[in-house]
Amino acid sequence: MGVKTETDIFHHSMLEDDPNSNTQIDKEEVKPRWGPQHAGAKELASQYTFGKRVQEIICLVLSIGLMIFNFIQLCIHFNPANAHYIIICAGLGIVTADFFSGLVHWAADTWGTVELPVVGKAFIRPFREHHIDPTAITRHDFVETNGDNFAVTIPFIASMAYRFLTYTPEQIQAEYNWLSFLFLLGIFISVTNQCHKWSHTYFGLPWYITLLQDYHIILPRKHHRIHHVAPHETYYCITTGWLNYPFEYIRFWPRFEAAIEALTGSKPRADDLQWAKKVS
Ligand SMILES: [Zn+2]
Ligand SMILES: [Zn+2]
C-alpha cells in the first residue's frame, strides 16, 4: 500500500502501538530516539505558552460561533433542487482541505526554523515536536489539538457571515454553491488535526472513528505511519490522505522541493534534522 517497507517503518519510526509510553531506546546511544523523554521533545513541549493557549481559545470560540451562524444561514436559504450540487461541493471541499493540509504540513516540516520571529514558536514548533514525539498529540487536549486549524478558517468564514448579513436573498442564491463549498472546506480544515490525532491513537477510539478510518473516509492509522518514517519526506496530506497516492505517483513534493532548493539554496528539512539529533 505505501511507499515504505515494513523494515523501513520498524527501523526509522517510533512504534506507536506499544503500550510503553513510546520511549524507545537506541541500544548503542542509550538515549531515547523518540517519545516524551527525548531532549528535543521536552524542550519543544515546554515552549507551549499561556499566551498561545489564550489565543487558541479565543480563535476556537470565534470560529465555532461563525460556523454555527453560517450553517443556520445555509439551512435557511437551502433549495432542495440544488442538493446534487451540494454533494459535489462537499467532495471538492474535502479534497481541497486535504490539499491545504499537505501544503501547510509540507511547508512547516521542510522549511523555516523554530527560531524564526513569531511563526517559529507559534507555528513551526508543533511540527518539530510531532516528529520526535508523535504520540504527544494524543496527550494534547481539544484546545491545543485544534486551535490553529480553527484559527486559519476565521478570515474566510467571517467573510461568508458578512455576505449573509449584507446580501439580498437573490444574491445569496446566486452564490449558494460557492458558499457551500467554502463552508465545507472550512469544516474539513478545522477537523484536520483532530483526524490527525485519531490517526495516532491506538487505544480507546470509538468504533465509529475506526470505521471511518478503515473505510479511508478520514486519515487511517496505517496510512499515516508512512509519513512518520524518518526523514519524513512524503505522505504530507493529513485530512483524508487521499491526495497522497497521486502526489506520490507524480513525485509532487520532491519536485517542488528541488525547485525551491535551486532558487534559494535552502536544504529541505535541515531544521527538522537538527531537532531529531538533539540529545541534551
Ligand atoms: Zn510531518
Ligand atoms: Zn502525524
Walk me through this protein's architecture.
It is found in: Membrane. This is Lipid desaturase domain-containing protein. GO terms for molecular function: oxidoreductase activity. Keywords: Membrane, Transmembrane, Transmembrane helix. It comes from Littorina saxatilis. The structure is a single chain. The protein is an all-alpha fold. The protein has one domain (about 5-275). Helices cover about 65% and strands about 0% of the residues. α2 (about 40-45) packs antiparallel against α5 (about 120-130), α4 packs across α9 and α5 (about 120-130) crosses α14. The chain is globular and about 65 Å long. It starts with 5 loop residues before the first helix and ends with a helix. The relative contact order is 0.16. The mean pLDDT is about 90. The structure holds zinc ion (2 copies). One zinc ion binds near residues 131 and 232. The site of one zinc ion (ZN) has 6 residues, from loops.
Brief overview, please?
One of its GO terms (molecular function) is oxidoreductase activity. Helix 3 crosses helix 7 and helix 4 crosses helix 9. This protein has one domain.
Question: Topology of this protein?
Answer:
Elements: H1 6-12, H2 39-45, H3 50-76, H4 83-110, H5 119-132, H6 136-139, H7 142-166, H8 169-174, H9 176-199, H10 207-214, H11 221-225, H12 244-249, H13 252-264, H14 270-276
Helix pairs in contact: 2-5, 3-7, 3-9, 4-9, 5-14, 7-9
This protein binds zinc ion (2 copies).
Residues 130, 134, 196, 200, 224, 228 line the site of one zinc ion (ZN).
Protein name: Lipid desaturase domain-containing protein
InterPro entries: Lipid_desat, Plasmalogen_desaturase
GO molecular function: oxidoreductase activity
